[in-house]
Design a protein that fits this description.
MAGE_WH1, elongated, mainly alpha, MHD_dom, Putative mage family protein, 6 strands, 304 residues
């Protein structure tokens, strides 16, 4: 190798050595700057990252907890409805929500939406029981000022009427299902009779007379007449008020909270029209609306 070539190689080596040394100095300077950062700033950056992770985890856990609670509420209300038990807010709070009582409104709203979307149902608040006797009216004034609402609910379908016609519902060969249909028909008939009576009430002897005409004065096919009426009272379809006078103890029957919601004015109108069929008077609809609309004058409009 010539001396000229040696000088060139030597010069290149020096040049690369200087560049490498400069890079090492720059890296060392950066490391020192980072090391010189205050412990508070370093820990703050780490804490912010940890906080972000915790927030994400908390949001995920909270969302999962809400979903699980909503599903539990759905199961609870469906079980109550199957047994015709009133769905009470206190029951939802104590038996389902538990420690998340502060989230009742949010849970209730989510459950309502899920019921409508998946089951075609919704929770409807029941009206308060009618206060008839003087004692009941005084007690109502002392408690909640004669409130017309309650904190109890039942499930009611949200399906349009055209999807609830008997023609599209297949007949069941299950005797228990047949008994259920018979029970629905019986309480619907009795509720219609009471709703279309004067003052929306019916004396016990009047109800007996109607049941006798229907051949239901002793046995209904679902047990005795007294057993059937007792069941309707228990399930809040009917409300019985007993009073004592010179003739002894008498009873008056009214529609109960569940009866008001399940068999509303529209249901009563359709039921009566179907019973008349083609022989219905021309003014039947007007007469029904006039009879059922009397509730507005009394300030006790039945839920539609």
């Amino acid at each position: 190798m010539s001396s000229r070539s040696q000088r060139i190689v030597s010069s290149e080596r020096r040049r690369s050595g200087v560049a490498k040394q400069a890079q090492e100095q720059e890296l060392a300077s950066r490391f020192n700057d980072r090391s010189a950062q205050s412990p508070d700033e370093s820990s703050r950056d780490e804490e912010e990252e940890d906080d972000d992770d915790d927030d994400n985890n908390n949001e995920a856990n909270s969302s999962e907890d809400l979903d699980q609670t909503v599903k539990k509420v759905i199961r609870y209300v469906l079980a109550c409805d199957y047994q015709r038990l009133t769905i009470k807010r206190s029951g939802i709070t104590e038996k389902v929500i538990g420690k998340q009582r502060g989230n009742f409104k949010k849970v209730f709203k989510e459950a309502q939406q899920l019921l409508r979307d998946r089951f075609g149902l919704e929770m409807v608040e029941l009206p308060a029981r009618q206060k008839v006797t003087l004692r009941e009216k005084k007690a109502a004034k002392k408690s909640k000022g004669n409130s017309t609402s309650s904190t109890s609910y039942i499930l009611k379908t949200t399906l349009p009427y055209e999807y609830r016609k008997p023609e599209i519902i297949p007949l069941s060969t299950d005797w228990s299902t047949s008994d259920e249909y018979a029970y629905i028909g019986l309480y619907t008939t009795i509720i219609c009779l009471i709703s279309l009576s004067a003052d929306k009430q019916m004396a016990n002897h009047q109800l007996d007379r109607y049941l006798k005409r229907l051949n239901l004065d002793r046995n209904t096919g679902l047990g005795t007449t007294s057993e059937l009426l007792a069941r309707m009272k228990k399930e809040n379809y009917l409300q019985e008020t007993k009073t004592n006078d010179k003739d002894g103890e008498t009873s008056e029957w009214r529609v109960g909270p569940r009866g008001f919601v399940e068999v509303d004015r529209k249901a009563i109108t359709r039921f009566v029209q179907n019973m008349y069929g083609m022989n219905a008077p021309e003014d039947i609809l007007h007469r029904l609306q006039r009879s059922l609309g009397a509730d507005k004058e009394n300030g006790q409009e039945t839920p539609a």
